[in-house]
Amino acid sequence: MGLIAWAVLGLLAGAIAKAIYPGSQGGGILATMLLGIVGAFLGGSLYTLLTTSSLQLTAAGLSIGGLVVAVLGAILAIYLWGLLARSA
Q: What are the phi and psi torsion angles at 56 (to 5°)?
């Protein structure tokens, strides 16, 4: 997947995850994009683990299913970031 596709997927997934997740997360468009890209990797890797029983670092593709997986991963990333930020 190309760099522009990564940016588009990250922006979409991060924005949707921030809209779904309750509370204020802060951050601008760059933080939203990075959160979405991290979410795509988290979601894609977890999806691969659940479907093939092998742990691989993969990312969701630019499709409806890939966007859903990336949004779920971004929600997980928001949650984990919140845990890290509170403990520090």
A: -135, 145
